[in-house]
Structures are given as structure tokens and as C-alpha cells.
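Handout for the seminar on molecular recognition.
Each group receives one record of this type.
Step one: identify the two inputs.
Step two: read the structure output and locate the region that could contact uridine-5'-diphosphate.
Step three: write two sentences on what you found, then compare them with the reference statements printed after the record.
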Amino acid sequence: KEEEVATIQILMSDTGGGHRASANALRDAFNVLHETEPHRFPMRIECDIVDIYTDYGPFWPINAYVPLYKFMAEYSFLWKWFYEFGATELGLWMNDFLLELFCFEAFERCLRRDPLANSRAGDGVEGGANAVRADMVVSVHPLCQDLPLKILASLDTDGRSRTEGRVTPFATVVTDLGGAHPTWFNKGVDKCFVPSTVLKNAALQRQVQESQIVQYGLPIRRGFWRFGADYNQSSSSSSNDDAEQKPKPFWQFGKKTKKQPADDIQMEEKGMHHKPTIRDSLGLLDLPTVLIVGGGDGMGGIVNQATAVGERLQSLAAKRNDSSSNNNDPMYQMVVICGNNKSAQIALSPPQTNWGSNVAVNVKGFVNNMDEFMRSSDILVTKAGPGTIAEASICGLPCILSSFLPGQEEGNVPYVEENGFGCYKGTPEGIADTVEEWLSVSSVTTEGTILETMRECALNAARPDATLDIARDLADMVYTRKEELKRKGVEKKVNEVAVAA
Ligand code: UDP
């Protein structure tokens, strides 16, 4: 018997790494739900993730949003203008009008495409004789609401059916955090998933009704879910006893142990958060560690930031050397993850840069285990990317935000500051000062160290269950639709029998 499969088309564009990352996270979550909760989610869900602008945009510049976004992100004044104009009534109207004028047919082809084309022999992606379009559509991109909704309404209202308007379920999953462009919000959607109260209010302002809005958190990759990582592997390899036998690091002397959230303790018991173990497995030293990242593309000036932080760590080590015995052992550690920014990786690696012996420096390109690097670190320096911030929060990692894209990332700065797990420093010097302050022994307060207090705040703001929660709701929606389609199929057969009789 053929396996029954529900299909979801996920619309996005690769403008920044976050949209595809969220789409992939949802796809993984559907698979996990099907495996781990088979009674509730008996049907496999197949996702068709498509960069609708790159793959279906009819001509330049519509099919070049990805390189254009990269370009504008480098020259942020351009991006600011584009973003702010796009948020005015005129900008919104123009966007709507031009997209409908030029992209309706092309995007219609996309929405008609069969997510199971590969397994239905003989049919092309865009509709052979047996092609069936997705049972449901989900958008994880600000520019994938208005036109797809119109197209679905027209596809659903064809001559053969008596439906008027859209019946294919449609949901938006917002992948921004502290601020979002108005195009994210369309009051015609069935559900709008928002990660924060600020964005819930933004949705309400755009006439999305309370009943349509669901607030769980940002969908992020499996390694950051509660018990989502390779938890069996890590649990066998370590225990907290090891940690107790080790001397306390210098910055923890003389302070009382703070209570950790229950879930965190549970995870640590499983070895997931055991810093020395994870450091060891990554080939890192067990030292105070600063992690520097710049989103998927290594943007935001990471070379200058890493240089300033590296030099500051050297001078901190030199000061400690003055007051104790002189030695050449590393005392601090810095990990720089350059993502796709190859030139930054080359510039920061030897022989281009030579870091002194008292600071252990690791420079990486794109890594697929960001969760492990975050769990190995004490401080994160990052541009204000929503994905990175949400991930850091789950890892209890205090953040220094080094830059933000005007518009959509601007709101992430108050999000971090108000939640108490970081601050914004716009210059390499300011970042180095803050690293020094946070690492310094004198930053021990009556509440604990600054880093510890911020770690707790980060964990309080964390939403490690968001991805699975969103996926459960979406799965329920697509299952309901599937049932509806089945009933219709049955009705059709009954009618056919009646006519034949
Ligand atoms: N990322 C990664 N490996 C890298 C660099 C970044 O997996 O080497 C991930 C990071 O963990 C985050 C995403 O890329 O999930 C970046 O998303 P964010 O929203 O922070 O910034 P964007 O790249 O979308 O501007």
C-alpha cells in the first residue's frame, strides 16, 4: 500500500541565512514529530522548500534579490533607504502592484509545483498529468505573503470546484525577532507565528487578528532544541562529576553558586552543556572563551573585531603574567567563525595574523555545529542576526552586538538589552572594552559575575521548544486539510456513482 504523505511548500528566499535555516528546521521538526510522536503525527510530511524569487523571478532585479541583498547589507545606508521606503504606504503599494504585475504567472507556476514530483514517475516538477500541488503553503520570508495568497485564491477558485477564495491552508512563520517589515503581516493568513511580543503587536497593527497569531519563538536548527542534539551520544561520554573534580576557573572564585533553571540542570546532567567536554570534543582548550561570528556570511566587520578582541586578550594575559609568574601558556581563547567570508578567514589565520602564545585562537569558515561552539563559549560577539541571538539565548550565552542591519535587525538590540543578556557596542574598541569588563574578576557583584547574571537572563528568554511547537501546529493544519481532501474525494466518488446510475 502506498504511504500516505502530506505536503507543505515552504516559500522563502536566501536573503541572509536565516530563512532557509528556519525552513530546514521546520522540515526536520516534522520528521522528528513523525518519528517520536507517531500516534499524534502518523503521516509523513514532505517539505518543498523553494527560493521563489531566485528560481521563479521572471527577470532582473526580481531574480537577483539574493546578491542585491548581500550588496545592500554591505552598504547599509542603501539597505536602510530600501527598507524604510518599502515600509511606507507608497512603498507597500508599489511592491504589491509591481509583484502582481510581473510575477503572478511565474509564481503561480511555483505554487502549482508538485512536491512529490520526484516520486511520481513521469511527471515534471510543474505539473504532469498526475501532479498535485502542496496541501499547504508556509512562508518564512517577508515577501512571500501577499502575492502567494492571491494566487492560491485564484487556484482554489477554479471552474471545477464551487469554492470561492482560498482553501489551501497558508501560514506565515516570522523569522525576525525584535523588529519586522510590515510585509510580513497579511490579515488573510490562517496563522501567523511570531517569536516575540514586539512582533505580535506589529502583527496586530497590521490587522492580523489575535486569533490568527501564535507566539512560540523563532524556529531554529535541531542542535538547539531541548534534547534535540545528539543527546544519547553526549550523555554517555561525560558526567558532572568530572566538573566537580576540576578546580574552579579563576573568574568563579569567591562567589556563591547560582540556582540554574531545572531544564538546564537536566540537560547538563545529560552532558549536553558540559563546557569542558564540548570544548575537548572540538579541540578547544578549557579557557575563558570569546566567540566571534557575523551571520552566515561573516559580515559586520569581523576582522577588525577579532583583531581588537585578540589584542585585548593578549594584554589581559600580559597583565596577569606580570602579577604571577611569567609563562607562555594560553590564558584566554578566541574562536572566530567567518561563515562564508573566505577573505576574513584568510586574513585572520597565520601567516597573515600571528596571535601571541597567551591567547589560543581558532579561525573557522562555515561550521555546521554552531550549537557546540556556542556551548563552548563564555561571550559571543555577533551582528544582531535574529537566528544567532535566539541560538545564543538557548545556550545561555551573553552577547555583545557589534552591528545591525537598519530596519529588521535594529529591534534585536533592545530585545537583547531588555532581556538582560547583552549590549550593543558599535566599535571594535568598545567590544574589546566590554570583553575585558565581562571577563575581569572585579565584575563579581553581589548577584554573581556579570556573565553569570546574563547567562541566566539569556536562559530565561530562550525558547528551545519553539520549533517543535510551531511544527506541531502546522502539522495539525495540514492533517486537517488532508482529511478534508479525502472527504472531498469520497464525495466526488459518490456523485460520480449517482450520475452513472
Ligand atoms: N551559521 C552557521 N554556521 C556558520 C555561520 C553561521 O550555521 O558558520 C548560522 C547561525 O548559527 C545562524 C545563521 O547562520 O543560525 C545566521 O542567521 P542570522 O539570523 O543570525 O543572520 P543572517 O545570516 O540571516 O543575516
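Reference statements: The chain has 19 helices and 14 strands. Residues 16-18, 21, 293, 295-297, 337, 339, 366-367, 370, 385-388, 391 surround uridine-5'-diphosphate (CB under 6 Å).
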